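Supplementary Note 2. Why include the ligand at all?

Several targets in our set were suspected to adopt different conformations when bound, so apo predictions alone were not considered sufficient. For every target with a known small-molecule partner we therefore ran a joint prediction. The input for FE2/S2 (inorganic) cluster is given below.
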Amino acid sequence: MAGKGKSGSTAGKGPGATKGATKEAAKSGVPQKGFLQGLANYGDADFSIYMRRAFARSQGFSMDELSRPVVGIANTYSRFNPCHRHFPELVDAIKRGVASAGGLALEFPTISLHESTLTPNSMKFRNLMAMDTEEMIRAQPMDSVVLMGGCDKTVPAQLMGAASANKPAIQLIGGPQMTGRWREHRVGACTDCRKFWMEYRAGRMGKTEIEEAEGRLVTTAGTCAVMGTASTMAAIAEALGMTLPGTAAIPAVHADRIRAAEATGVQAVALARGELTPSKIITQKSIENAARVLLALGGSTNGVVHLAAIAGRVGAKLDLQRFNELSDTTPVLAAVKPVGNEHYMEDFFAAGGIGAVLRELKDRLNLDCMTITGETLGERLAAEEGIWVDRRVIKSIEEPIEPQGGLVALFGSLAPKGAIIKRSAATPALFERTGRAVVFTSLADLSERIDAPDLDVTADDFLVLQNAGPSSPAGMPEAGFLPIPKKLLAAGVKDMVRISDARMSGTAYGTIVLHVAPEAAAGGPLALVRTGDKIKLSVKNRTIDLLVDEAELAKRRRVWEQEKKPTAPRGYDRLFRERVLQAPEGCDFDFLAPEA
Ligand code: FES
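The joint prediction is reproduced in token form.
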């Protein structure tokens, strides 16, 4: 079998190798490669090897198999995660690829996160999954690892964990869903989910219709069918160089997805035999490439938080001022919902996928960045010159959808450390405004009062939500898409300025200012806003200011200090709330930065 015994494994080959391997382990300490690396510590290395092999043999492995390069497969299949329901088929294909290249594939489970089946929200568990992934890569004997991710938080969690573990790693993306049909509409999660819900709330859709639509929105395996967080993070993984070229956008149920899984298994064996670790691929330069792709896609605002967290794991940075410079020089190229109102991820894949976007951006990219294949990004793109692109979906750099990036960071007295607005999915008429704040102090307050007939609100007001940031009890949910009050919806209002320290689904849209930092729960100025205050927004100037004088703010701050609540009493909730960083730093835990 190709490459067998060339892995650097110290386990030897075949049954006769046992004695040699034991001697070698005894002579040189812990083997560095193969199934015998990283021994369980019983105080006797030979005993550790003997025990490990005894249990491995109980699984039916031959000594020949145990001598091969070991490829771990971090499998995030879970019945709580509908987006990953096709993973068993992909695992089979990865294993086929690993075996054909002479490796030993050992699959292992990690935490899996799905957006709608976790409380209070999936973001709360991204760091836990990243820690699980990192520690299992480090603790188990593998020479490389395939990271199987898809649903929103799974890909960043795996990249964060793999970057910290720094063993050779390759990402296999699960891929997006295909669209479905409801009546005459082509539909896909979850931009259409939100549109229908807004129609239902406005009374323009009845109960029967909304229930019918619910059964048609998600009809295949895979991640959301639009350029939401999952597809944005898949694109980021490919732009970073952590996936095989051209694989990020393949639909989940497409045969190419299975072929990509097999090829990923083959590449994982090549990685297992070498030294190409994530720290050689995820660098300051490749982080900036990924940020450009995020901007050109008009991708999810969540991508900014996750990319900052990935950067933080390798000692790089996604500085929001630098992000604005990148945004000013990166046009929006992809007409995929929620940008535009027509195309879905399956169209984007057929149109040319991430490769087509990268080729348009190539004069702005750091082409010397290394990728998982051992080629630089420049070499990859040179080999793809001339491939057909559907310009209805992926625009050329000469004729972009927008001349500047889809996302922009705002700074000012309301957000001294920054906030994010997705201008490509917002209403330009609302960009330069001063509005009266209508404040909700928590998610519970929001849900209790937003539809109250006597709520004092007009379409020109700014809705403000407090205490939905990372260290709040809510744990930074995707609640930044504040519902428009029913009475305004019924009057035909489709958008208004909304401001919070929460996140927003990548599938959502509107003039929505998110990730305000520092957050309210950490004592940021957002905590001091009161209904009736004036807030000035200027997307052109990248500013968001609270127009309240200093003396009044100081008075409010004293009250806030007195009323400050303690964090959670115990467990992961306490760890999270006490150690989570703010949004511009990726909401990672402060103790997970690399050692200086
Ligand atoms: Fe899994 Fe949208 S819920 S990707």
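Confidence is low (pLDDT under 50) at residues 1-22. The first strand starts at residue 70 and ends at 75. Comparable summaries for the other entries are listed in the accompanying table.
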